Amino acid sequence: MPDTIKVLVTGAAGQIAYSLLYSVAKGDVFGTDQPISLCLLDIAPMMGVLGGVVMELQDCALPHLKEVIATDKEDVAFKDVDVAILVGSMPRREGMERKDLLKANVKIFKSQGAALDKYAKKTAKVIVVGNPANTNCLTALKSAPSIPKENFSCLTRLDHNRAIAQIALKLNVAPSDVKNVIIWGNHSSTQYPDASHATVHVGGKDISAFEAVKDDSWLKGDFLKTVQQRGASVIQARKLSSAMSAAKAICDHVRDIWFGTPEGQFVSMGVISDGNGYGVANDLLYSFPVTIKDKTWKIVEGLKIDDFSREKMDLTAKELIEEKETAFEFLSSA
Ligand code: NAI
Prior knowledge:
alpha/beta, Rossmann fold, L-2-Hydroxyisocaproate Dehydrogenase, Chain A, domain 2
């Protein structure tokens, strides 16, 4: 039996966590024979609600859930953490300026980064979900200098899964038949969902998505818009943001970090851009295609980038540079 691992989920009283915690606790992410100590962090006013979540987790009577800790204290939450899934963040309220939202989140992720630095294992894997996810991840990374920056990533897997689903729906094939889509850049509406390296399994072989779809204007037009705007469409319909699909994407993302990506396949995740071969400025937390082996990601090298893609990749990089500059202003003064 492997040693128990400590998994922290922040924003644990929120709606994504409500979908996520059961999957993590029952073994969807780390395997069904991995004992888990689950630590749940939320803010003080949510401790009552969180108590209910703890009761429900206990009532699931899961064989490998060794312990559930609920807390509003960062020193308790981050102590000896193996995996930290940072979901909680300051939501955008009506009338709130983007700058104010960034400022509130810099405060949270600076503090949680410092807690990681001080209390977590140096091998901890840190996954940031709370928005603005890329810049929050960069803030946490900068605030935890003793943890390797490669241990930090942010979630763009939901966008990746949305892109796969759109192509699968268009062709009436299973999502598992669509591989190697890419989300470049920011988890925002400037992201670039790129199908130019994607393949689809049809007629017993893998062919390029462009060849399979036979509609370039859709792949370069409505496909992009649908994926970029999907989060907003879900909010409009549900009056709440994506939670079930976000939780599923988090499971996919963390499971791939833990067990690696399948041979010949890559996935999208936000990682530090240092030394990439795609002309993205260094020191941005940018979503790239990656493969993962031995719990270590590697940016897929050598993909051809045409002018259409170049323009879209630069646009989303520009937004991330602006977010970073604003966040760093607050970071040095916070
Ligand atoms: P929610 O509002 O239901 O839950 C958020 C929880 O975080 C609340 O319980 C809140 O009290 C808690 N929280 C706030 N500040 C905290 C702090 N400093 N420490 C610990 N907990 C704190 O929100 P939901 O729907 O669960 O979404 C969470 C975040 O995930 C949002 O920022 C959302 O925009 C983001 N998101 C990101 C996606 C991605 O693909 N990267 C996809 C979907 C959502």
